[in-house]
Amino acid sequence: MTELPVQRAHLLPVVAPERRWLIEGLWAAEAVGIVGGEPKCCKSFLALDMTVAVAAGRPCLRRFPVPQAGRVLLYAAEDALPVVRQRLEGIAATVGVALPDLDIHVITAPSLRLDLAADQERLAATATQLRPRLLVLDPLVRLHRLDENAAAEVAPLLAYLRDLQRRLALAVVLVHHARKSAGNVRAGQALRGSSELHAWGDSNLYLRRHGADLSLTIEHRAAPSPGDLPLALHVDGDAVALRVSAAPPAAPPPARDPAASIARALAAAAAPLALAELRAVCHVRTADLCAALGTLVQAGRVAKSPRGYALADAGEALSTGAARPAGP
Questions:
Q1: pTM to 2 decimals?
Q2: Architecture, CATH, for domain 9-244
Q3: Residue 69 neighbours by CB under 8 Å, 6+ apart
Q4: Residue 312: predicted pLDDT
Q5: 7 vs 5: CA distance, rounded Å
Q6: What is the pLDDT of residues 196-252, one digit of tens each?
Q7: In a 10 Å sphere around its CB, with 0-12 CB exposed, 13-18 middle and 19+ buried, how is residue 154 labelled?
Q8: Contact, 55 vs 93, CB < 8 A?
Q9: Start-end of CATH 3.40.50.300 domains in the chain
Q10: SS3 277
């Protein structure tokens, strides 16, 4: 019997900081997830704003940077094609670009049923040919004839989209409705249908109305989520687009690079450093420190011995001296 492939945990790949986000703070790179909310909460406007932001490489909602522009594939099932174009042109004008300059491809098929194998194959073939960074499907209710409350029926559709994301290394935004009058429950729990939908998302965005006010809740599987943000539709002539209605906070300080900190500390050290010593010098979380050390050792830039860690070109110093714990 063939064994499953395994690898030591500290040798697993490390995601570079610049590749962690499709839209910084808003949507993780290659994430699947939900843009949810009750009717008339601007879900489609938000999905189209994400579409333009990724295609243009401009901040989404004039707030969240896009590290790298890329192609977007969009299916908008509830709006006529002229309406889709008008909205995209308005958002593009708001961010200072022209729609013809954006790499946005719109699926014009009158229907798309992701509970049917034939339509799954057609969507997969289209995405394989175009290789978008982002796939936007709006809304879920128009993509199937399943019982959304039955996990056994919803799960295969979500599994198909997850498989598509993994095979083609793309992000998937699925627009979905929330239950009416669900304002007293957690945002994700207000989604209509099975709890599978909430659990499926790597990044989820929820829009809610409180009287005339609109707010955005952001959730991530693998990153902290900020507090709710107030949004408003901004109208400038024919251009209509969402934006954060409050002034953005000061930009956070640049993230510390654990690998660079480790290299500086080892270059300045007269002897190998144990894990605890490196942590004290570098002021880096243990998990980040161990991940960076694993990468540096695997790349041959750092050598490890019973005495501790040292730069690889100082490896001869590792062969002498008393042993002491070196960590992972």
A1: 0.72
A2: 3-Layer(aba) Sandwich (3.40)
A3: 54, 55, 56, 57, 103
A4: 84
A5: 7
A6: 999 999 999 999 988 888 999 999 998 888 889 999 998 888 888 999 986 544 444
A7: buried
A8: no
A9: 9-244
A10: helix
